[in-house]
């Protein structure tokens, strides 16, 4: 969407002030309107120097997007395949370095933890440099870590090269492969996301037996080199993440006249005009006041992304009166005022073209000094970028047309943000990075009791999540099960995980389904199954346990974004997702080594499964009253808001 001025900036400002004064006399609200006129007068100089334009990214819902889905699927296959099959390497590494298995499990735990902890930082980098570049860098970094691990002389050496470097590299691959689906798909988002994340289960199914064969033929060091080569292919898959251009909407003509779509400020309510002018004034400042900001965003000199105006906040819209016209663009409803109603000053609102950024730079530069402004796209400024389920669950989507929805969930960059992008200077810590990182690490959300319960519950879930992957093969081998059969136990978890993701996607596609309840029931069953997994070491019983565990634990990743939106709202999804990744990353690092230490202390492999299952079960029990807590919290907030308004 583009807002541009036909008249000169001076005439535009003068006309706007005159129109506002007339509206004031007409509405009889002199005091408020005089304030608006003063603000317009104060901003006249900045308006002359910096005309404002805007665009919005409309997900194409297909086309090249399916190639993006394929690339995301393959990246998930490689990353999770390597991580979840690490258990096959524990024993040979422990034998060579003459250490215990729990000591070696720390290597895999560090990788699991760091690829989650890196999520907020990787997302911020991707917001500035794009998914393609970040994924390629991650593939190279992880491959380097695996090659260096081939020369390991101790477990601490492996902890750094394989665990930390490899984990961070995988974080650079994993985060873009998940986020990019939400950027390319709207109507088919749930299906596209489901296909992409199925790569995780299939990767576990394939890599566990393949990894065992590689270790048998080449040793664990040779297997690491093979993993490095496989990981490098993610650079090719990441190259499929072609960046989307922002779309201008123009030339959507009515059936019988050749009128231009414009916005008439005089037709808007006074409160709306006040809100628009305030938002546009903030945008022109380039950076917002930080007087009332919380610690993390203030540290980065930005605000939480939800505090910035959306496109629909700034550019008010009304509906086209002719339905046939609207059908020319997918679910499109745009402002329309006939040509005959135009006054001297009117703002063209919609313009289909792909050439300008959301906010034009204040200084004019030559073509050789600037980048193509079409590249100024900020995927993490979308409120729904981490939402992987059907958008039909969102009232923001069902109550609006497609374009209106995208305008309502897309936050505008500031003028300073765009100038950093199109300018020739290199920015070490640009606003596009700081704003996303400040949002994802904004700890003010922890004041919410609902979020705290959800975060602590996720922490305990992740504490027990990786334990079966790490110790299942070792326990089966010690119990007399053939080594290759034991490896197929992990593969079974992988294929069950894939089936579970599809199953939960279908179940939660119905808006009436309570995703939190489904999650709690599944985790309860998964936790109890893990606790009692050692009742029998027969092959049949162990495979049955793996099926149940894979089906149950897959809900954790599938339903996470739905639960956050149901409890905290779409505007808090990015903030909550960033903090949850930190909670889960820390839990992943300490979970398996702690279970291993518990196993050593008791002398029983079953002990670590008791601990793992107990943690998963506890996380479910904690979240059963969460809906009740959330309702009470929302009610208290409503009462507080009413009291503040009446004060």
UniProtKB/TrEMBL annotation:
Keywords: Membrane, Transmembrane, Transmembrane helix. The chain crosses the membrane at residues 64-86, 106-126, 133-152, 164-184, 191-210, 222-241, 451-473, 485-504, 516-536, 542-565, 577-597, 609-629. CDD domains: MFS_MCT_SLC16 (cd17352). Pfam families: MFS_1. It is a multi-pass membrane protein. Residues 64-631 form the Major facilitator superfamily (MFS) profile domain. It is found in: Membrane. Its main location: membrane. The keyword Glycosyltransferase does not apply. GO terms for molecular function: monocarboxylic acid transmembrane transporter activity. The keyword Membrane applies. GO terms for cellular component: membrane. Gene3D superfamilies: MFS general substrate transporter like domains. This is Major facilitator superfamily (MFS) profile domain-containing protein. It comes from Phaedon cochleariae (Mustard beetle).
């Amino acid at each position: 969407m583009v807002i541009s001025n036909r008249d000169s900036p001076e005439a535009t400002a003068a006309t706007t002030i005159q129109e506002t004064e007339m509206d004031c006399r007409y509405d009889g609200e002199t005091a408020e309107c005089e304030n608006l006129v003063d603000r317009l007068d104060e901003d006249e100089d900045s308006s002359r120097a910096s005309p404002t334009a805007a665009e919005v990214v409309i997900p194409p819902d297909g086309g090249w997007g399916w190639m993006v889905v394929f690339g995301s699927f393959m990246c998930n296959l490689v990353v999770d395949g390597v991580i979840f099959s690490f258990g096959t390497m524990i024993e040979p590494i422990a034998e060579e370095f003459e250490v215990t298995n729990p000591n070696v499990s720390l290597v895999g735990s560090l990788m699991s933890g760091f690829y989650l902890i890196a999520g907020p930082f990787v997302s911020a980098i991707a917001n500035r440099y794009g998914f393609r570049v970040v994924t390629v860098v991650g593939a190279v970094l992880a491959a380097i870590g695996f090659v260096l691990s081939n020369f390991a002389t101790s477990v601490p050496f492996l902890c750094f090269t394989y665990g930390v470097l490899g984990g961070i590299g995988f974080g650079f691959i994993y985060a873009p492969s998940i986020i990019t689906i939400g950027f390319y798909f709207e109507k088919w988002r749930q299906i596209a996301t489901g296909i992409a994340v199925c790569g995780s289960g299939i990767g576990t199914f394939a890599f566990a037996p393949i990894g065992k064969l590689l270790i048998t033929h080449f040793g664990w060091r040779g297997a690491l080199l093979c993993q490095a080569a496989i990981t490098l292919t993610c650079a090719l898959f990441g190259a499929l993440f072609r960046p989307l251009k922002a779309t201008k909407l123009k030339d959507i003509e009515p059936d019988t006249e050749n009128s231009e779509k414009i916005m008439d400020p005089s037709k808007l309510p006074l409160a709306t005009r006040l809100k628009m002018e305030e938002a546009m004034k903030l945008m022109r400042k380039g950076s917002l006041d930080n007087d009332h900001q919380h610690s993390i965003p203030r540290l980065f000199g930005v605000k939480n992304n939800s505090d910035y105006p959306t496109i629909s906040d700034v550019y008010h819209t009304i509906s086209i009166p002719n339905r046939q016209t609207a059908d020319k663009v997918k679910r499109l409803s745009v402002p329309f005022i006939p040509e005959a109603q135009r006054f001297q000053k009117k703002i063209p609102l919609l313009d289909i073209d792909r050439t300008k950024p959301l906010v034009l730079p204040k200084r004019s530069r030559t073509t050789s000094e600037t980048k193509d402004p079409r590249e100024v796209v900020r995927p993490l400024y979308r409120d729904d970028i981490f939402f992987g389920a059907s958008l039909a669950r969102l009232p923001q989507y069902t109550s609006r047309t497609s374009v209106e929805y995208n305008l309502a969930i897309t936050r505008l960059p500031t003028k300073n943000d765009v100038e950093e992008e199109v300018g020739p200077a290199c920015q070490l810590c640009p606003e596009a990075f700081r704003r996303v990182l400040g949002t994802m690490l904004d700890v003010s959300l922890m004041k919410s009791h609902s979020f705290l319960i959800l975060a602590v519950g996720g922490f305990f879930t992740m504490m027990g999540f990786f334990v079966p992957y790490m110790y299942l093969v070792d326990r089966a081998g010690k119990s007399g099960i053939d080594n290759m059969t034991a490896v197929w136990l992990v593969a079974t978890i992988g294929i069950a995980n894939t089936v579970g993701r599809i199953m939960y996607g279908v179940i939660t596609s119905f808006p009436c389904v309570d995703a939190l309840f489904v999650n709690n029931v599944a985790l309860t069953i998964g936790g109890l199954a893990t606790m009692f997994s050692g009742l029998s070491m027969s092959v049949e019983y162990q495979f049955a346990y793996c099926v149940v565990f894979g089906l149950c634990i897959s809900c954790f990743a599938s339903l996470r974004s739905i639960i956050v939106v149901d409890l905290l709202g779409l505007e808090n999804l990015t903030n909550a997702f960033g903090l949850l990744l930190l909670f889960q990353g820390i839990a992943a690092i300490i979970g398996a080594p702690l279970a291993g230490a518990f196993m050593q202390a008791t002398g029983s492999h079953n002990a670590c499964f008791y601990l793992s299952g107990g943690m998963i079960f506890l996380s479910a029990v904690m979240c059963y009253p969460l809906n009740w807590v959330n309702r009470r919290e929302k009610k208290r907030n409503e009462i507080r808001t009413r009291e503040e308004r009446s004060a």
